[in-house]
Amino acid sequence: MHHILYLHGFLSSPASVKAQATREYFAQYYPDVQLHIPQISNSPAHVEQQLLTLIAQHPGLIENGLKAIGSSMGGYLSTYLIEKFGGKAVLVNPAVRPYELLQNYLGEHVNPYTNEGFTIVPSDIEVLKQLDTARLNNPKAYRVMLQTDDETLDYRQAEQKYAHSHLIVEQGGDHSFVDYSRHLPDIAEFLLNGIK
């Protein structure tokens, strides 16, 4: 049994289009892969403990190195976990400095998927900074998928940080990563080395 962790982005959920496409693909082509898609807390202050608890509850996730897929903020969190536990990750339009971006999100919000209300406070920015990974131990542990017309994040930040990783930079697209499903066979291959 192989385990893969999928981490969605900020203001998203396991019901997102990419998360569901990933679930369907692995269910069809890799039935012995257990895909974990947690609802990540909207509050950055709770995210690290939530993820560490999840891994403690499912030790199979890190048995042979963590395998993760992370979108946007989920890409930032996936990098933190890979640097902590080892393994490899596919990052889709990953956030590189979300603590800068969230400066513009201080205040009250509602998650459009869950309708949960929450508040981003200045201490959340500091919490995110603590999860930053200034240096990558093994850049080749990352497959990084970027689209240049991402309207939320500057793709060049990720292009620079992951310059020595497996980089895929597509012209156009948007933050959701247009045509993501087309990449799922390569994502599975990268994470599982062709093991079915």
TrEMBL record:
Record field: transmembrane: none
Protein name: Esterase
Species name: Alteromonas australica
InterPro entries assigned to the protein according to its UniProt record, in alphabetical order: AB_hydrolase_fold, UPF0227/Esterase_YqiA
A Pfam family per the record: UPF0227
Source species, domain of life: Bacteria
